[in-house]
Write a structure and sequence with these properties.
single chain; about 500 residues; alpha/beta; Alkaline Phosphatase, subunit A; Arylsulfatase, C-terminal domain; 2 domains; 9-stranded mixed sheet; 16 helices; 13 strands; about 30% helix
């Protein structure tokens, strides 16, 4: 029986695992020698890994709204972290699966609207909903991870986390970590007795800041053995020109300078996670890698249960992240209104033993907006015409060569973090070689030739020798961005 025949006879289960703020270059099998990711390496060997997958926003809410709707931010209009609610007229792909008979569940983050203390759920299709936006117990109404600590682990969440209110340093033990809780809940869901196929969204908070890996994982990474971030002395002055752009880091910091880590900070989780004036880039990177290593181990727990229960062969596993992390590159850290590769490229791996090709590494330009239509088509379900993503299924099944999918990728930032007077709107278009970054209403911009300058050090925006190139790329940029606008309802007749 062919792979196509198998897809037509039995709908697959779907394990959709999305980490938070994980950049693309963090999988050993794809070239990162300083991190151990054996489970992700197995998924790459047994499936299809996309090296050039791009998020449609460098901010959580807009990015998640995009891959859950299959629509660009310009269409779904969910741009901000902290928006009051998710638009009622937008339909999540999980709702489509639920309507088709899937049993859907979520563990961890949703983050389609403001989620500091609680989150107003849209009509999301999830029957099981174990919510935890971030691990610390500063949420006034509590959350399911906190309940698990208190009632199942017999641990006071505030006593556990109160000593760990710092930007970078060892966190709670792995056995009590939110990522571990995500796996515990996931295992409960996938081992339930049911007659229907299931879809489970697993969304741990890591490796998002604060950078506080479990001590036992942090001990496996030696900060001094890690390479420094991408940086040149000229970055400090170059980033100063972008101080008027709404971004989370306003002042670039030389990542070559080893700094004393101040363990104690004041404030709630969000304020602690945003402290960027002083940091040690290698200590941050060590914690970041350690958190990903724990994610890898916890993902393995879920996969092992699927194998032990006979479900693995007919389960699609998707591993991805919502956006990346600057991690000290060019003197910047965290996320915000910039479009460097470490921030906008994310891991994206698909595996399905019964249905997908194995051991394929794709160099195609792909977007996270493509995930929703891909999953629908793989499950044999119709893709709504309102979805703007392009299914990756022909690549995943080997029916099309793996290295061509899109002519370009886009990313967008609009008034996303708040607190900035001019509501900055930034857009990025990249065709694989040239990348333009337009900060609308500002005089500054970026133009990179990634073939000649993969580290994005040489901004050609104001280079007189690149004047004609800039004009050509700006026209290309405009045309590409106009293609992200939703077309609305179909015509009622031939007008």
């Amino acid at each position: 029986m062919s792979r196509t025949d198998k897809r037509s006879t039995q709908r697959p289960n779907i394990l959709w695992y999305c980490s938070d703020q994980q950049r693309h270059d963090t999988i050993r099998a794809l070239g990162q020698p300083h991190i151990a990711t054996p489970m992700l390496d197995e998924l790459c060997a047994g499936g299809v890994a996309f090296r050039r997958a791009y998020t449609q926003s460098p901010i959580c809410t807009a990015a998640r709204a995009t891959f859950l709707t299959g629509r660009y931010p310009a269409a779904h209009q969910t741009h901000r972290n902290g928006n009051a609610h998710f638009p009622a007229h937008e339909k999540l792909v999980t709702k489509l699966f639920a309507e088709a008979g899937y049993d859907c569940g979520l563990v961890g983050k949703l983050h389609l609207s403001a989620a500091k203390h609680f989150e107003v759920r849209p009509d999301d299709g999830y029957r099981a909903f174990w919510w935890s936006h971030h691990p610390t117990p500063d949420a006034a109404r509590g959350h399911d991870y906190e309940t698990w600590l208190r009632h199942e682990k017999k641990v006071d969440p505030k006593a556990l986390y109160s000593p760990i209110n710092y930007f970078c340093g060892p966190g709670v033990p792995a056995e009590l970590h939110q990522t571990t809780w995500c796996s515990e809940m996931a295992i409960r869901f996938v081992t339930e007795q049911r007659d229907a196929p299931w879809l489970l969204s697993v969304n741990p908070f890591d490796p998002h800041a604060p950078f506080d890996a479990p001590p036992e994982y942090l001990a496996k990474v030696r900060a001094r053995d890690l390479p420094l971030p991408l940086f040149r002395e000229s970055d400090l002055a170059r980033q100063a020109a972008f101080a008027g752009i709404d971004q989370q880091t306003y002042v670039a910091v030389d990542p070559r300078v080893r700094r004393r880590i101040e363990l104690k900070s004041e404030g709630d989780h969000d304020s602690i996670a945003s402290q960027t004036n002083e940091y040690d880039a290698l200590e941050v990177k060590a914690n970041y890698y350690a958190m990903i290593m724990q994610i890898d181990d916890q993902l393995r727990r879920i996969v092992d249960v699927l194998r032990d229960t006979g479900q693995l062969d007919n389960t699609i596993i998707v591993y991805m992240s919502d956006h990346g992390e600057l991690l000290g590159d060019h003197g910047l850290i965290l996320k915000g209104c910039r479009f460097f590769e470490g921030l906008v490229r994310v891991p994206l791996v698909f595996s399905w033993p019964e249905g997908f090709a194995r051991g394929v590494t794709s160099e195609a330009l792909v977007e996270t907006v493509d995930v929703a239509p891909t999953l629908l088509e793989a499950a044999g379900l119709p893709v709504p015409p309102s979805m703007q993503g392009r299914s990756l299924l022909p690549i995943l099944t080997g029916e099309r060569p793996p290295d061509v999918h899109r002519p370009h990728v886009i990313c967008e930032y609009f008034d996303a973090i708040g607190g900035h007077p001019d509501h900055t709107h930034g857009t990025m278009v990249c065709d694989g070689r040239y990348k333009t970054c337009v900060y609308h209403g500002h005089e500054v911009g970026e133009l990179y030739d990634l073939a000649a300058d993969p580290g994005e050090f040489d901004n050609l925006w104001d280079d007189p020798a690149a004047r004609d190139l800039k004009a050509d790329r700006l026209k290309y940029h405009l045309d590409a961005m106009m293609g992200t606008i939703g077309v609305g309802p179909p015509r009622s007749g031939n007008y």
